[in-house]
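User: Can you fold this complex?
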Amino acid sequence: MGKDIKKGLMGVTVDETSISKVMPEINSLTYRGYAAQDLCAKCKFEEVAYLILNGNLPNKRQLKAFEKEERKDRRLSKSLIKVLKEIPKKAHPMDVARTAVSVMGLEDKETSNNTPSSNMRKTMRIFAKTPVALAAFYRLRKGKKIIEPKKNLSFAENFFHMCFGKVPNEDIVKAFDVSLILYAEHSFNVSTFTARTITSSLSDIHGAITGAIASLKGPLHGGANEEVMHMMNEIKKPENARKWINNALNKKKVVMGFGHRVYKSGDSRVPTMREYFGKVAKITNDKKFEKIYDIVEEVMIERKNIHPNVDYPTGPTYHLMGFDTDFFTPIFVISRIIGWSAHVIEQYSTNKLIRPLAAYNGNKYRKVLGIHKR
Ligand SMILES: CC(C)(COP(=O)(O)OP(=O)(O)OC[C@H]1O[C@@H](n2cnc3c(N)ncnc32)[C@H](O)[C@@H]1OP(=O)(O)O)[C@@H](O)C(=O)NCCC(=O)NCCS
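Assistant: Here's the predicted assembly.
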């Protein structure tokens, strides 16, 4: 391969952003200058969503208005509910999320209006409705009735309510809220870059988010949290963990939930999520996955010096909360809609068509022969 080719755009800086950064001086992911773990300690998800979209933390009045808008936008159209009812029950919920946002784009009265204020209103509608659509599918595929969203519940509480018909204790809700904060934004990762690339042709935000969801589905990106759970289920019990992970490494397997393109000595989101995973394991009185977690991590660091990424603790945490494994990445979606939308709006404000080059390594020039001569 030519030495000038940066396969996977590794190490290439393609644009500027003011939304988030991994700051080496504090070894942490920051949103608009605030460390993600500090936001987890002091804020709820809606405050962080406001921050990422607007640039500053909200005061009480601003937060109230933001929450009011999100809660008002939660209801789904009759036609979207009809689509959800007709989707095959075996469909992957990531494909359902992608389809739901695409349908929202068909219905939104401002789909083709790409002014900043219109994009912000569309963001709020996508943000409010996507969890409702996913929860509806969660119930429908189990043959259960859809549960209507409730305006008196927070974003996190409402998701539990719509999936399970009840809101768990506040520590579980806080752990879920923390995972949403940690998943909300991460600069030019593959799904965000997809959203920005789509936007760069001056296409619309529904299209950008639909594409981003397709990108997040892959196991090298958001899909890793589901793969972590499959791995833990395969390991079954802590006594098997050491042998399982050693075998996997001997066979040169890629172990999901480990490694990162940006963090090479540990993902700064992991200690916070690990703490909340521990809290949820304690509340649910199920320590099995925590033990497996620690053993696999120890061997990965000892043998490969590869550290966990945030998908490693979120996978088993969502499992203990009662979610089906194929809903882990869709939960990532309902949070990351915020980051994607902020990037779409930023891309519009300083747009340049994204159109890289490729070094051609195909056939030399050939003459086309008529079909009878080939
Ligand atoms: C995230 C990921 C794609 C980053 O990849 P990258 O920056 O391109 O790094 P590379 O894949 O080139 O990895 C460098 C080396 O570490 C190894 N490595 C990286 N992640 C690994 C993992 N999870 N398990 C085993 N080995 C791993 C690679 O095999 C490679 O080894 P080599 O140099 O001997 O070939 C990669 O770490 C991965 O596939 N992780 C698992 C999926 C995952 O958890 N994704 C969620 C990310 S938030």
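The pocket of coenzyme A is lined by residues 220-221, 224, 254-261, 304, 306, 309, 311 (CB under 6 Å). The first strand starts at residue 20 and ends at 23.
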